[in-house]
Amino acid sequence: MKYEKAQNILPQQIIEIIQNYTDGGYIYIPRKDDNKKSWGENTETKNYLKIRDNEIFNKYSSGLSVKILSQQYFLTEHSIRRIIRKQKNYD
Length: 91
What we know:
Layout: H1 6-9, H2 12-19, H3 45-61, H4 66-73, H5 77-90
Helix pairs in contact: 3-5, 4-5
Protein name: Mor transcription activator family
InterPro entries: c-mor_Regulatory_Protein, Homeodomain-like_sf, Mor_transcription_activator, YraL-like
């Protein structure tokens, strides 16, 4: 998301109407429903986390402890357990 100066993109009449509600403040204008993207759609992060979570589950299934996995992946033991639980539900 980038900031735009209102005077560069909006007609003066609309700026004056908005100023009746917030004078000099920041406002967020949400995307139209048709243009919304789901989390991770623009990057590879979602795919990376999916692969990482599968690795964690496979290592856990092979006998690695939650404590060791948390140290290997720099995650809390609680996060590792959550990932394992989620992966079990996908099977």
